[in-house]
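ARCHIVE CARD
CATEGORY: sequence design from structure
SOURCE FIELD: tokenized fold
FIELD CONTENT:
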């Protein structure tokens, strides 16, 4: 018996062959590796982005000053803002640095020697990373332009690198075909970033740069004068220091003469070994300075509007107020129970420790020059460490340094 061949079989075989050929062609087209020059460009940008993100992370963790950034400028405003951290404690540059590492690793599997399957996975990862970088850049640039209304040159450069790198990634056929899924994955990453910042916002910091050091403080610190003044000067002092008492009077006149142009951030820095380990032995005039400073900060934290008057009161006697007198007056101002609760919380002591830490960093820069009080940290170049003869001399100095005029 002779086997019969179905008339439709050759037709089906031909259709299958065409479909198989089309699938192979489509697979070859979709999986073709990116040109080497594009891959190397992506790698170069990723290395530059990683270096910059690592530098910004180091600045955030070490408290150093960004090279070339003046005190009170865009760097200070942006890097000291609540948006400079994620989940309140993680510098936002750290996830960016890690994502750049992911991009560098993924580019190792998009070359012609990599298998189709590895190229597919690597390209999908690159596409998701590109969408994430793009979304994050848009988010942070909008924050700087419309919310903070200040630009950080380092941050802008970081976003520019991410955007150019992302454009190269998404323009390549191999990664571009993953865009639909990457929009979902990258979108979720950006949503996680934004959600983490909104749900657990960091504290807004004032960042001041002096002698190559950055002083970052929260909005809890007392400011004498207009908190929104264009020039906020850090004032380090001791409540039981006679020279500081004289300086306090000069600062009052200085604020009056400059109007809302100048304000002073009061940062008690007691010369008392009870809280300041840079002091080996407390001199008689400074005994009890730590406790007085804690009480003053407790008043600020409990009732900020009462601090200025309480601060003036502490400086009235030539030899300063005793801890007992300061406690009694503070209890009268904010209430005994509220004062006790705040002092027991250890928050004033923590702020005092922060002030001492900032003082130590200045000592590390120049132990002889920055050892005493009072000190006025005017800007990155100028720190006034000697008591002026009078308020007029101080005002003349600030006019020259800050390029502003007093009334």
């Amino acid at each position: 018996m002779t086997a019969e061949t179905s008339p439709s079989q050759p037709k089906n075989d031909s259709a299958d062959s065409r479909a198989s050929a089309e699938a192979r062609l489509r697979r070859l087209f979709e999986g073709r590796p990116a040109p080497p020059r594009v891959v190397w460009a992506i790698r170069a940008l990723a290395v530059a982005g990683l270096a910059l993100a690592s530098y910004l992370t180091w600045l955030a963790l070490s408290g150093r000053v960004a090279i070339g950034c003046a005190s009170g400028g865009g760097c200070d405003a942006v890097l000291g803002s609540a948006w400079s951290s994620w989940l309140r404690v993680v510098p936002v540059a750290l996830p960016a640095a890690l994502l750049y590492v992911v991009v560098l690793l993924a580019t190792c599997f998009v070359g012609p020697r990599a298998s189709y399957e590895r190229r597919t996975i690597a390209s999908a990862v690159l596409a998701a990373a590109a969408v994430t970088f793009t979304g994050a850049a848009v988010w942070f640039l909008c924050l700087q332009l419309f919310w903070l209304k200040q630009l950080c040159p380092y941050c802008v450069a970081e976003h520019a690198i991410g955007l150019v790198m992302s454009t190269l990634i998404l323009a390549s056929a191999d990664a571009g075909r993953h865009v639909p899924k990457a929009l979902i994955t990258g979108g979720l990453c950006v949503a996680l970033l934004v959600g983490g910042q909104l749900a657990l916002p960091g504290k807004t910091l004032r960042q001041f740069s002096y002698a190559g050091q950055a002083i970052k403080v929260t909005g809890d610190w007392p400011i004498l004068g207009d908190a929104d003044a264009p020039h906020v000067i850090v004032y380090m002092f001791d409540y039981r220091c006679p020279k500081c008492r004289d300086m306090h009077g000069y600062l009052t006149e200085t604020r009056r003469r400059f109007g809302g142009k100048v304000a002073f951030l009061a940062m008690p820095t007691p010369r008392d070994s009870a809280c300041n380990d840079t002091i080996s032995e407390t001199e008689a005039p400074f005994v009890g300075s730590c406790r007085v400073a804690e009480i003053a900060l407790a008043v600020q934290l409990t009732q900020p509007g009462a601090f200025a008057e309480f601060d003036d009161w502490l400086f009235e006697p030539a030899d300063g107020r005793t801890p007992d007198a300061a406690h009694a007056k503070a209890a009268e101002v904010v209430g005994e129970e509220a004062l006790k609760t705040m002092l027991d919380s250890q928050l004033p002591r923590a702020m005092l420790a922060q002030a001492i830490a900032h003082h130590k960093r200045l000592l590390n820069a120049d132990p002889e020059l920055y050892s005493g009080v009072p000190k006025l940290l005017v800007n990155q170049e100028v720190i006034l460490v000697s008591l002026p003869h009078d308020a007029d001399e101080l005002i003349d100095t600030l006019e020259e340094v800050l390029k502003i005029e007093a009334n």
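CARD ANNOTATION: The chain is about 60% helix and 10% strand. Residues 1-6 have pLDDT under 50 and may be disordered.
SHELF: design records, drawer C
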